From TrEMBL:
This is Heparan-alpha-glucosaminide N-acetyltransferase catalytic domain-containing protein. It comes from the Eukaryota. Residues 23-147 form the Heparan-alpha-glucosaminide N-acetyltransferase catalytic domain. Keywords: Membrane, Transmembrane, Transmembrane helix. The chain crosses the membrane at residues 29-52, 64-81, 101-121, 133-153, 165-187, 271-292, 304-325, 331-353, 373-393. The keyword Secreted does not apply. The keyword Transmembrane applies. InterPro entries: HGSNAT_cat (IPR012429).
Length: 411
C-alpha cells in the first residue's frame, strides 16, 4: 500500500500570537495533489506497478508521496509558529497534537481495522504495529516544531535566511550525520525470526555478519527496529517482497524456496529512517520561512528555485557515486532528491495558483487539501470499502469489492 499521509493544515490551529497567518492557496492545492497521488498509487498501483512503490532501490511515483507530505508539514509549521510569544505553551500544544496524531496512527494502521479481503476486527497486542505513516508524521512534526519554537533567532528586525535559522541547518546536518554513521557503522549480525500461520510456526535464519549493507536483509535500520520495537511489531508485508528474488505469487504469498529474509517483517517507517524524514520536514520549514518573511512573489520564487537546485545537486551526486535512492531506508540521496522535487512542485503550484490566479482550475485539489485528514481517515479505515462490502448478492462474498479484487488479480 502506498503512503497515506494527512497533513497539518496551516490554518488548523491558531498561531501562538492569536492571529492567523494569511492562507496560501497553493499550499492547500499541493496538499490536495499529494492526497490525490496517495489514492492514485494506492488503488492504481496493483494494476500499473510502475506507479507503485519501488521494491527497493529506485524512484516510482508512489515514492514521492511521503516526502511531499513531510515537506508541506514543514512549510505549514513556519506559518503556524511565525510569532511565538510563549515558548512553553507552544511546546505543550505541539506535544499534545503529536500524541493525538501518533495514537490515531496506531488505531488506523496498527492492525485494529480489517482490510479488503480480511473481514476480521481486533488486533493482538503482541503484534500491533507501533510505527506507521501518521506516527512518522508525528515524529517529524515534533522535531520540526521544537526546532522552530526554540532554535529560531528572532532578535534581529531584519530577516536573514541563514543567520536567523543556522541552528535549524545544524540540526538537519546533525540528524543526517547520525543516520549515515549508524547506517554504515553498525555491525549487523546473523539473525533469526519466527513466522506464525494457521498451519503452525516456522523459524528462519538470515546470514549477515556485515557492516554498511543497504540491502533488504542486512541493513542497520531493520536491525535497530528488531531490537527496539520487536520483530512482531513491524510491518508484515514489506514492499521488498515484490523483488524477483522473493518469487511472490499473485495471491501475495512468498514462495517457500525464496531467500529467508523475504518472509521477514520490515517497517519502512522505522526508527532510523525517521531521522532523515525529519530532515525533509525541516527543509520544508525553510521554504515556509521564505513564504512567511518575504512578500514579493519574485523574491520568493528566486529563493525557492535556488534552494531546490542546491538540494538536487548533492542528491544526484550521491546517487551517481553509489548511495542508493531508497524510500524504505529513506537514504540521504533519496531525501535530497525528493525534497528538491517537492520544492520545484511547490514553486510551480505557487506560480499557477497564487501568482497567476488559476484557482478554479485547481479548486478540487484545494478542497481535498483542506480536508486531507478526513480523507485519510476514510481511506485508511476502509470505511468506504466496508460500506460497499455491506451490499452483496445472496452470499457475502458476492460484493463489489470482491469482484474488483478478483478482476485485478486475474489481470
Amino acid at each position: 500500500m502506498a503512503d497515506r499521509v494527512p497533513l497539518l493544515n496551516h490554518d488548523d490551529e491558531e498561531p501562538p500570537a492569536g492571529r492567523r497567518s494569511p492562507r496560501v492557496a497553493s499550499l492547500d492545492v499541493f496538499r490536495g495533489l499529494s492526497v490525490f497521488l496517495m489514492m492514485l498509487v494506492d488503488y492504481g498501483g496493483s494494476i500499473f506497478p510502475i506507479i507503485a512503490h519501488s521494491p527497493w532501490n529506485g524512484l516510482h511515483l508512489a515514492d514521492f508521496v511521503m516526502p511531499f507530505f513531510l515537506f508541506i508539514v514543514g512549510v505549514s509549521l513556519a506559518l503556524v509558529y511565525k510569532k511565538v510569544t510563549n515558548r512553553v505553551e507552544a511546546t505543550w500544544k505541539a506535544v499534545a497534537r503529536v500524541l493525538k496524531l501518533f495514537l490515531l496512527g496506531v488505531l488506523l494502521q496498527g492492525g485494529y481495522l480489517h482490510g479488503i479481503s480480511s473481514l476480521t476486527y481486533g488486533v493482538d497486542i503482541e503484534r500491533i504495529r507501533w510505527f506507521g505513516i501518521l506516527q512518522r508524521i508525528a515524529i517529524a512534526y515534533i522535531v520540526t516544531a521544537l526546532c522552530e519554537i526554540w532554535l529560531s533567532q528572532r532578535t534581529s528586525r531584519q530577516w536573514h535566511f541563514v543567520q536567523s535559522y543556522y541552528w535549524h541547518w545544524s540540526l538537519a546536518i546533525f540528524l543526517s550525520v547520525i543516520y549515515v554513521a549508524l547506517s554504515y557503522g553498525l555491525y549487523v549480525p546473523d539473525w533469526q525470526f519466527e513466522v506464525t500461520s494457521s498451519s503452525g510456526s516456522t523459524f528462519y535464519s538470515v546470514k549477515c555478519s556485515v557492516r554498511g549493507d543497504l540491502g533488504p536483509a542486512c541493513n542497520a535500520a531493520g536491525m535497530i527496529d528488531r531490537y527496539v520495537i520487536g520483530n512482531n511489531h513491524l510491518y508484515a508485508k514489506p514492499v521488498y517482497r515484490n523483488l524477483k528474488d522473493c518469487n511472490m505469487s499473485t495471491s501475495g504469498q512468498v514462495s517457500d524456496n525464496s531467500p529467508s529474509w523475504c518472509h521477514a517483517s520490515f517497517d519502512p517507517e522505522g526508527i532510523l529512517s525517521s531521522l532523515t524524514a525529519a530532515v525533509t520536514c525541516i527543509i520544508g520549514l525553510q521554504y515556509g520561512h521564505v513564504l512567511a518573511n518575504l512578500q514579493d512573489s519574485k523574491r520568493r520564487l528566486d529563493n525557492w528555485f535556488l534552494f531546490s537546485a542546491s538540494l538536487s545537486v548533492p542528491g544526484i551526486f550521491l546517487a551517481l557515486v553509489g548511495v542508493a535512492v531508497n524510500k524504505s531506508l529513506y537514504t540521504v540521496s533519496y531525501m535530497l532528491i525528493t525534497s528538491s522535487a517537492a520544492g520545484v512542485t511547490f514553486c510551480a503550484l505557487y506560480l499557477l495558483v497564487d501568482v497567476y490566479g488559476y484557482r478554479q482550475l485547481t479548486s478540487l485539489l484545494e478542497w481535498m487539501g483542506k480536508h486531507s485528514l478526513s480523507i485519510f481517515v476514510l481511506v485508511t479505515s476502509n470505511v468506504a470499502v466496508i460500506a460497499l462490502q455491506g451490499f452483496y448478492w445472496k452470499v457475502p462474498e458476492n460484493n463489489i469489492i470482491h469482484w474488483i479484487v478478483t478482476l485485478v488479480v486475474r489481470s
